[in-house]
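Re: How this chain folds, sequence and tokenised backbone to follow
Notation: Tokens come from a learned vocabulary of local backbone shapes, not from coordinates.
Start of record: The labelled sequence and token lines come straight after this line.
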Amino acid sequence: MINRDNYKLRLAYLDYVENVRRRDPHTVYRQKSSLRYLLEWADDRPLEKAPKIRPTFPAYLDQFDLSNVTKHGITSTAAQFFSWARYADPRRFIEISPLWIETLYIKSTRDERDHEFFTLEEITRMCAIAPESLIDQRNAGAVAFLFLSGMRAGAFTTMPILAFDPVTRQVRQWPKFGVKTKLGKKATTFLLNIPDLFDVVRQWDSIVRAALPDTGPWFARMTTDGHDFDKNNVIDTSRNGRIGAALRSMCHRAGIEYRSPHAIRHGHAIYALKQCKDIYDLKAVSQNLMHASISTTDGIYGILPDHDIQSRIERLQ
């Protein structure tokens, strides 16, 4: 049973995030979802006694089928929440120390980072599954689009049909179109040239354009049976969770271990970086990922897996 005072505290924190820190609706929704785990972990116990609750919050999350990236996001939100609580009501949260808050973070190990991405072969396997419904075609189109574009899931799920040009392969990640980009950035990005995956994208694109107005969502809402478009096809920020469900279904059918939607963006970056021939290619990949600089791209995605390091070192003469 969720503690009523804990529930009220979450509402107060979300109000702070939305109206004081002025975060976008997607961020508020994501933090609201993350804090649900915190409320369920505490159960009927007050959150000000969190350091005494067992199992610890990170250990509690281990029971769920969550990627390391997702768990890191949940624990980071919890840490931000407790930091806010200490300042909002220092007497009530006197037992919440900065040192204890640090224990909430789940830090990625090198080995975990090596496996947090989808390869081109895995994406191709998922997209090669024979579709049994429109929802299967949509999901295949989404997986292919995410790998070819490297878009963040939040931007992709809020992308209207008019933001994508299949002829030029341009993606107008423009907030004025309703695309929820990180920090509200605006950029025109492009799809990788992988014909087999682009064919999957084009097939879904032709279907969704024929069914919905150009202001409708490219990642459209479907009926429960998956054979028709939902009548209420408007873009909303809650669709980020649906792309996770779609990806989980695709992984299950292809016999591939599930990873978060962000792992597709990671796979896109690793694939693209391996194709680079000079510094200009690297810059193009970096800008296509909407990074501020090449150093950002290299720092996040430029770490090579051990087998790549070995093979490249062995080729050096």
Remarks:
- The longest helix spans residues 68-88.
- Residues 5 and 255 are 43 Å apart (CA to CA).
